[in-house]
Amino acid sequence: MATPDIHPLAAEHIPKYVVAADGSDYLFNFMLVFTVGVILLIGVAYFTLHSIPEKMAHESNHPQFQLVGILALLALFTHNGIFWIAAILVAGFQIPDLAAPLRSIAEAIRSLAPARQVSPPPVPEPPSDPETLVEER
Question: Which residues contact 95 (CB under 8 A, 6 or more apart)?
Fold first, then answer.
């Protein structure tokens, strides 16, 4: 038999997710908090993923750090993956300094040349006579 406080036509066991008579919906409240939390976690993961090239370039003190940052921002705002891939590639590989061998050759040639003493040109002294100043003009 049914207990006296439950209507005789009501089910004996009502699950918790069924809305109560006072209007409190526990399942809706849980799903609302869960959905907002998942959206925030996805957003954090998305921004963390897009910042990977900049972190790589910053940690290695990369000379093209500005370029990596610009490519990562372009990828973030345009949703084009090619910019993000380019940023990863630029951050991952150092572009070789092609001018370094030329600089070392120039320094070696400079060191072989005899040292010259360059004296400054003589400065002419101004005439002390005021009349010669007037005549020169």
Answer: 63, 64
Alpha helices in the chain (DSSP H): 26-50, 52-59, 65-78, 81-92, 100-112, 130-136
pLDDT in tens, 22-59: 777 888 889 999 999 999 999 999 999 888 888 888 88
**CA gap 127, 27 in Å, rounded:** 103
pTM: 0.53
**Which position has the higher pLDDT, 41 or 5?**
41
Length of the chain measured in residues? 137
Contact in structure between 65 and 51 (CB atoms under 8 Å): no
What's the token pair of residue 133? 């100043």
d(CA 55, CA 68): 10
* Terminal Cα-to-Cα distance of the chain (whole angstroms): 132
Q: Quick one: three-class SS letters along 99-112?
A: CHHHHHHHHHHHHH
